Amino acid sequence: MTDPLIADVPAADLVRALGAAGQTVATAESLTAGLLAATIAGVPGASVVLRGGLVVYATDLKHSLAGVSCEVLATEGPVAASTAEQMAVGARIRCGADWGVGLTGVAGPDSQDGHSVGTVFLGLAGPGHTEVVRLKLLGDRWTIRIGATHAAIRELLRYVTAGETSVSA
């Protein structure tokens, strides 16, 4: 039986691309609660490229485990572009990976800190590169969480296959 998490998403392509580039990835996940790492791990051979992941659902863990600054959490909150960026950097550093991915947002059913349901911030941190993508996803909790996971895989794949390492942080 095929892992249902990897259906309809280029997770196998990401694992192949990371492997071909000799690179690794780690995650820091809030609203997806490990779904991104689990999806990548669903690909045979993922152990070569997946270093690990941090589930930082609670705000205090975003600081203590993922390294998000207290100042950012106090001023911008747990759902913010700068939080996603620092989560990505934290995953990369703490897990010793070439790429870090941070995901934070609101899956619902209620809005949070002025952010509507479906607001997601995706942080990517890699060799000479950091980026944050703001997503607006529609649907129920599962649809938003899986959509965030798929977007993270597609965005990271785009950078790995393009060899994007020259963009400065």
DSSP strand tally: 5
**Can you give the mean pLDDT?**
95
Query: Uncertain runs with pLDDT below 50, 5 residues or more?
Result: 164-169
Strand content: 15-25%
**Share in helix:** 25-40%
Order of helices and strands: HEHEHHHEEEH
Q: How are the strands of the largest sheet arranged?
A: 2-1-3-4-5
Number of helices: 6
Tell me the structural class: alpha/beta
Q: Largest sheet at a glance? A: 5 strands, mixed
Multimerization state: single chain
Distance between the termini: 41 Å
Radius of gyration: 15 Å
Shape: globular
Please provide a written account of the structure:
Mean pLDDT is 95; it is low at 164-169. It contains six helices and five strands, in the order αβαβαααβββα. Helix 1 runs parallel beside helix 6. The chain is of the alpha/beta class. The chain has helices spanning 11-21, 35-41, 59-64, 70-75, 81-95, 141-162, and strands spanning 25-29, 50-55, 99-105, 119-126, 129-136. Helix content is 40%, strand content 20%. It starts with 10 loop residues before the first helix and ends in a 7-residue tail after the last helix.
Brief descriptors of the model:
40% helix; 5 strands; alpha/beta; 169 residues
Sequence-ordered SSE layout with sheet pairings:
Layout: H1 11-21, E1 25-29, H2 35-41, E2 50-55, H3 59-64, H4 70-75, H5 81-95, E3 99-105, E4 119-126, E5 129-136, H6 141-162
Parallel strand pairs: 1-2, 1-3
Antiparallel strand pairs: 3-4, 4-5
